[in-house]
Amino acid sequence: MNARQGQRMGEPGDEGAQGGGGDARHMKPSGGEGSGASARRFLLGLLGAASFWAVAAACSGGVKVDEGNAFPCDLTQSEDVRDTACPPAWRCGIDSRCHEAKEESVTQSSEPTFEATRRYPVLLEGDARLVASDARGGQAVVGYADGGAFLSNGRVVRSLTVEPPTLTPGQLAFTGTRVAVVSQRSAVSGENALRLGRLDETRPQVAVLTVDPTVVTTRVRALRVAPGRLERGLLAVLLDTLGAGEVAPDTGTFTPYPGALRALPDAGVEVCGAAPLPPCPPDVLLLPYLDVRPVPASVFTKDAGTGPDALPVVVTPEYFFWRAPASVPGGKDTWKVLNPEDPISAGGAPSPTTAERAPVWSLRHNETAEVWALRRPLEGRHVLGTWVLRRSGGEPRLERAWADCTPCGTGRLVAFTPVSDGALGVEVLCESAQAGRRTFARVVGSSVVNPSDACLTQPLEAPVDFAELSSDSTTGTRLARAGAVDDSLGSGALLGGEHGQVWRGRTLSTLRPLYLDRVPQSVAPLGSGLLALTRDYLSLEVPDSKLPARVGLSVTASSAEADGGVLEQPALGGLVEGSAGWLVLESGQVAKVNTEGATSDVSLGSTYGPQLLAPSGAPTSGPFLGQGVTAEGGGSLVIAANDQLYSLEGISPTTEPGQLPGVLPRLTPDPGFPVRSLARDRTVSLTGATPQRVRGWVATGRSLFEYAQSKEGRWSLTPLPLGDAEPVKVWSREGAGVGYGRVGLRDGVVLRLPEGLPLTKPLPAEGRAVDYASLAGWPVALTETDVYAATARGTRADGQAGLLQWMPLPRPAGLTNEALLGARIFVVKHDSDEVLYLFIRTGFVYQLGKGRL
Fold it and tell me: Could you write out the DSSP letters of every residue in 452-512?
């Protein structure tokens, strides 16, 4: 029964009221039966009145003469009109009912200051023109389209200065302590030149690459290297003329490979060429070298200690050859064929070997050199051959794993990495020849009669945003830039992006950025900097000011040692905000970030809590959100996993996962609808004087609830009014020892909880909020095109303060509407200040404002 129905029951003119009062025309004479009937009517009238007040008191809202009533109101009307249907000091709520607007004990802080500046990255921000990996030092060189170049190890970065300054590198490759530098091609002759240099890293902010004046060779197509001890690595050079050779890193001497390598019927090799080799017979054509891949000598020989550290494998139109060292019987730099009975074309149409198509040829292998893959051109397509190296008994041989096939259709095979993690295959990154749209998959076999037919593939989840791979837009097709993929090393992957991203990994699927390259799931303070969590890694600011320039949030791998010494990466679910480093893995395992010692060593340590379980007893699934409260004795965590809420208290961490009993959910707010946002009243504690131990708010895509645990341990869930509105985010507002709830709706209206009273007007121009934050108590909203703060307040017609109004914040310079797609805002507390940050999909971080608590 509503309040107005209760009021109408006792209005004058009601038939029951008239009968109870009596009418002179129907009165009986006094005494006898008439007197008894009158008494009965009087008693019935008293009972009727008592029943009315009892029912009225039981009705929702009731009749509150002194307090007011929850009358209906129309929230769609203007702010000045809709509250006129409510008693004084009451306001129209989201459910179109009047609610008492009790004064909150929290005081509003002074208005924040807003100024848009980019915090990260500081240096690495441009379009990568070339990338080169220093396998020996775990570093990478990045050269940008604007001419700048930098050397970074993923934590710090040095500006790379080249001496002489007139030399602009077009290609770089590291071999031992030497660096091979190929100049950019002349606009007139089209030629370039190879020189050797040394890298001086003793200066704090700058790395100097001093290049020797002596030209080693010219017209260089590509560099190939294999690391070695000191100067014992191998540097191979592919030439525009389709010749090839090696450069001695210590002397800079270039030695060409034989002019021809011909496989003989007995698996031998006929070698000829320039002196000191025997001259080639007239019927032998000079053979083009299509690729060279230096590999560690241990791949082919067990006794490589006294010989060279690396040996070359060369690719000719039909055969692979390797050069055997003296430690191999019949060796002494003897060339041997690896596929004597199975030519590369397998008896089909041979691939073109012209200088124009030569860059398509590329030979790569996995980390152990057990699986190899060859990309070659054929009939306008990129064909992929997959080979396995057999070393048991006799000479090493490359055997085809399955028939050659085409993994990318009519598109381009941009990058590929052979793998053998249980089952062999080749991870491939393809792009369409016209639009440059990129796809990622794994080749697992083929069932073809023609190499131009499609491979058997399995789609893979991209570890990074491959759409951000550096592209050459001069042709209007946005195809991947040639220098954006480092092909100097035969295994592993190093790629450069359009906005400063640098990705490296053992394979394409294990690529990780050097610095934050995406919008994080959670953000927390770490010293004076930030700690950001994504699904694949943690990233943080290196705080040591003694190190060279901090350019961004450095990525720290969330790695754990697996069987065989291989590092595996557990996927991360989310941080537990307000806790001492607790987080949830994507598996539902609760774990803790190791922050002991220097904050630059933050990683996923060996500290674990319990496993979160679904009601069935199986591990739960995400998305994950968490809110923690620290206290003496361990504090407590409230975690949302999918559509369920969990509570953890006084965790006794273990060094291995799975050692604690699993935890089942306490509440399921909206079955089948995952929790979208979770907040907690931090003024309520396990040991405090409040009537509750835990209290907070939770929102799904359609519903809003208050959750609580009483001092007796009982859990409760109270639905809160929403009307037809869609909740986006909930948060808490605390002050004077009392906590209040807030919820931001899709249209920009922020409600006070639990009453559901509007605190702000809707966003202008029918904007749609995609994220919210609270900066020192002031609401901030992110739409797909702008960031707003509700800091302006109007005045109602009755002279009272009106609702907060949204005002657009200054936009960072150069930030487009497209860049805001998928962005998020976070507020992080540093000492007594709160700072508002904007994270966009490229990993750029902007500081938008600051407020003091």
Answer: TSBPEEEE---SS-GGGB-EEGGGSS-EEPGGGB--SSSSSEEEEBTTS-EEEESSGGG-E
- The whole-number pLDDT of residue 452 equals 93
* Contacts of 510 by beta carbon, 8 Å cutoff, 6+ apart: 463, 569
- In this structure, are strands 771-775 and 778-782 parallel, antiparallel, or unpaired? antiparallel
Q: Apex CA 767: angle with CA 762 and CA 771, to 5°?
A: 90
CB atoms within 10 A of CB 332: 10
What are the phi and psi torsion angles at 744 (to 5°)?
A: -100, 130
What are the tokens at 353? 């070997």
For residue 462, give the nearest of 423, 493, 500 by alpha carbon.
Answer: 493
Tokens of 688: 């405090």
What's the start-to-end Cα distance of the chain, in Å?
A: 45
Q: Of 428, 441, 502, 437, whose CA–CA distance to 467 is shortest?
A: 437
Q: Do the bridges between strand 636-641 and strand 824-830 make them parallel or antiparallel, or are there none, so unpaired? A: unpaired
Query: Helices marked H in 270-364 — which ranges?
Result: none
806, β-bridge pairs: 790
pTM given for the model: 0.86
pLDDT at 33: 40
What pLDDT sits at residue 52? 38
Contact present, 574 and 589 (Cβ < 8 Å):
no
Please report the pLDDT score of residue 123 as a whole number.
76
Q: Is the dihedral of CA 39, 42, 48, 50 positive or negative?
A: negative
**Going edge to edge, which strands form the sheet with 397-405?**
362-365, 371-378, 381-390, 397-405
Q: How many CA atoms lie within 13 Å of 166's alpha carbon, on the beta-carbon side?
A: 2
* Segment 705-743, tens digit of pLDDT: 999 999 999 999 999 988 889 999 999 998 777 889 999
The total of other beta-carbon atoms located within 10 Å of residue 123's CB is 19
Tokens 């869609």: give the residue. 726
- Cα dist. 240→262, 405, 504 in Å? 21, 27, 28
Instruction: Point out the residues of the chain with pLDDT beneath 50.
Output: 1-62, 65-66, 545, 548, 559-567, 597-600
687 half-sphere exposure, CB direction, 13 A CA radius: 10
Q: Give the sheet arrangement for strand 757-758, strand by strand.
A: 727-735, 738-745, 750-753, 757-758
Q: Label the pairing between strands 624-629 and 572-577.
A: parallel
Is the CB of residue 183 less than 8 Å from the CB of residue 167? Answer: yes
DSSP letters for 718-738 = EE---TT--EEEEEEEEETTE
Rounded to whole angstroms, the Cα distance separating 456 from 264 reads: 34
Alpha-carbon separation of residue 108 from 712, 755, 853 (angstroms)? 34, 19, 9
**The total number of residues written for the chain in this structure:** 853
Q: Which helix (H) or strand (E) holds 442?
A: strand 438-445
Q: Give the C-alpha separation, 537 to 109, whole Å.
A: 36
The torsion angles phi and psi of 600, rounded to 5 degrees, stand at -70, -10
Q: How far apart are CA 609 and CA 849, in angstroms?
A: 36
Residue 487: name the closest of 225, 240, 179, 679 by CA.
225
d(CA 53, CA 105) in angstroms, rounded, equals: 34
Q: From the CB of residue 525, how many other CB atoms can be counted at a distance below 10 Å?
A: 13
Give the per-residue pLDDT at 304: 55
Phi, psi of 459 (to 5 degrees): -65, 145
pLDDT score for 376: 97
Q: Are 512 and 497 in contact (CB under 8 A)?
A: no
C-alpha angle 134-138-144 in degrees, rounded to nearest 5: 60
